Amino acid sequence: MKKHLLVLVIIVLSFFCFVGCVKYSSSYSAIASVRTNTSDTASYSFSSFKGRMVFKLKCKDGCSGQLSYSAKLDSGNLTVYVDHDGTKRELVSLKSGDNISSSVSGISKGTVYIIIETDGKCEEGSFRFDLN
C-alpha cells in the first residue's frame, strides 16, 4: 500500500514539475481555426475564437530584432501581448472592425512569446507575425 502511495505522489509531483516549466499555455474554444507556427513566423485565423492562443518564436543569430505583424478582427475585443525578455507587454489591442499592420523593434535574441487573449467571443479574425 505504501509503495502505491509513493508511486502516486511521485507521478503527481512530476506532473506539476512539467507543467511548471511552461511559461504560457493556450486555452481556448474555436470554430474553423487554422494555426501555423515555425521558428520565426506564426499565423492564426478563425471564424470564432474565445480564450488564449500562445505562439513561441525564436530570435536567432542574424535576427534583426524586428517583429512585423498584421491583424484583422470583424467582431469582438482582444489584446495581443509579446514577451521576449521575461516581461509580458501589450503589443496591440483590437476591437470590432480593426485591420492593422505594423512592426516593433528591439526584440531580444532568444525565445519570443506571442499571446492573443480575448475578453469574450471574437469572430472572423486573422493574424500574422514575422521575426526579421
Structure description:
The chain has one helix spanning 2-20, and strands spanning 27-31, 34-37, 41-59, 67-75, 77-83, 89-95, 99-104, 110-118, 122-131. It is mainly beta. It has one domain (25-131): Jelly Rolls, CATH 2.60.120.380. Strands 1, 2, 3, 4, 5, 6, 7, 8 and 9 form a 9-stranded antiparallel beta sheet that branches. β5 and β6 form a beta hairpin. It is globular and about 45 Å long. The N and C termini lie far apart (57 Å). 20% of the residues are buried. Residues 15-19 have low confidence and may be disordered.
Write out key terms for the chains shown.
single chain; 132 residues; mainly beta; Jelly Rolls; nine-stranded antiparallel sheet; 58% strand
Low-pLDDT sequence parts = 15-19
Strand content: over 45%
Q: Level of helix content?
A: 10-25%
CATH architecture: Sandwich
Backbone CA Rg: 18 Å
- For the record, the count of structural domains works out to 1
Q: What's the CATH C level?
A: Mainly Beta
Can you count the helices?
1
Question: What structural category arises from helix and sheet content?
Answer: mainly beta
Distance between the amino and carboxyl termini: 57 Å
3D shape:
globular
Mean pLDDT: 89
Count of individual beta strands: 9
State the major sheet. 9 strands, antiparallel
Instruction: Briefly note the CATH topology name.
Output: Jelly Rolls
* Sequence of secondary-structure elements: HEEEEEEEEE
